[in-house]
Design a protein that fits this description.
210 residues; TIM Barrel; 8-stranded parallel β-barrel; 8 strands
């Protein structure tokens, strides 16, 4: 299933309104999002569980992997497709032991090839580098050079670009070697989420990677 980490990787915004969150997620999935990650840093556990459960059902309908950000136990409880771990979100090897071999585990590697190598050794299925561009979601995020994608290609894992990615600059990350682009604001704040999702996916058809 990790091979499905490609194209548009949609990451949900922090929304307390579950109905609104589902509406936006549905539009992204109709537009062709290939992966959906549930990310809500502010919600209490009960709301996270409610929202994740509803989003997982949407992903099943559309046949795309459903990833939960940083919460291994919630992933285990709901039997989601996988989890994405940041640098302070827990140990990858421990998550692999809990989740088993079939679940997807992604790892944020920021601007570090060494972190990506370590993540693979610990059992990660894909790695994410960023911020590739200035990010409104994380304005203080460490900048990651696009050259990292070529340097990390020998790892043989899908690579996700994240951070400040827009329809205008996503082609640069794709050309550098990113297999997927993770988008929050440029997708979910768009006036037409479905059309914007189509735009991002079309970039993978028309951009040649290095």
């Amino acid at each position: 299933m990790a091979a499905q980490i490609k194209g548009l990787y949609a990451v949900t915004p922090d929304l307390a309104d579950t109905a609104e969150l589902l509406c936006r997620a549905e539009a992204a999935l109709r537009g062709g999002a290939n992966v959906l990650q549930y990310r809500n840093k502010a919600a209490a556990y009960a709301l996270k569980r409610e929202q994740a459960s509803e989003l997982m059902w949407l992903c099943e309908v559309h046949g795309v992997p459903f990833i939960i950000n940083d919460h291994v136990l919630l992933c285990l409880e709901l039997d989601a497709d996988g989890v994405h771990l940041g640098g302070t979100d827990g140990d990858i090897a421990a998550a692999r032991r809990l989740l088993g071999a079939r679940k997807i585990i992604g790892a944020s590697c920021y601007n570090s090839l060494a972190l990506a190598e370590r993540a693979k050794a610990q059992g990660a299925d894909y790695v994410a580098f960023g911020a590739c561009f200035d990010s409104a979601t994380k304005p203080a995020a460490t900048s990651a050079p696009l050259e990292l994608f070529a340097q990390a290609r020998p790892l043989g894992l899908p690579m996700v670009a994240i951070g400040g990615i827009t329809p205008e600059n996503a082609a640069l990350a794709i050309a550098a070697g990113a297999d997927a682009v993770a988008i929050i604001g440029a997708l979910f704040d768009a006036n037409d989420i479905e059309a914007t999702a189509h735009t991002f996916n079309n970039l993978f058809t028309h951009t040649t990677t290095s």
